[in-house]
Design a protein that fits this description.
129 residues, mainly alpha, globular
């Protein structure tokens, strides 16, 4: 089994994290930032499993994608409706294991995190050393 799905999933979910924003919509921004943090946590099952065990890896990958999709649904409740199409594309790509497409669909969320979250991280399309 190739390890690229695990690496791609970690890149997808690890792009955004932060604590909260200010301004008139600070509660919604704070909730969104918390959920973006939860997206990053979705990769934990994949990060902890031995890829040499295909059955366990498959289960961990499925659990991560399920958690990711659930968090996307929760984000729909706190993000402005302008993000609906991005969230639809992101969820479709992730649940179909099209991780490169999911990276593309994450751009608007990464920009939102950079603008609204206290501790913005490097966007998923950039690599850190």
């Amino acid at each position: 089994m190739r390890t690229w799905p695990a690496l791609a999933l970690v890149l997808i979910v690890g792009a955004c994290s932060g604590g909260g924003g200010g301004g008139p919509n600070s509660f919604r921004a704070e909730a969104a930032c918390g959920l973006l943090d939860r997206l990053a946590d979705s990769a934990q099952p994949v990060e902890e499993v031995d890829v040499g065990d295909p059955a366990r890896f498959g289960e961990a990958l499925e659990l991560s994608v399920t958690n990711y999709a659930t968090t996307i649904d929760d984000l729909r409740e706190v993000l402005p409706s302008d993000f609906d199409e991005d969230l639809d594309r992101l969820e479709a790509a992730a649940t179909q294991y099209r991780f490169e497409d999911a990276l593309t669909a994450r751009v608007a969320l990464d920009e939102y995190a950079q603008a609204n979250c206290v501790e913005p991280t490097v966007p998923a399309t950039e690599s850190s050393e």
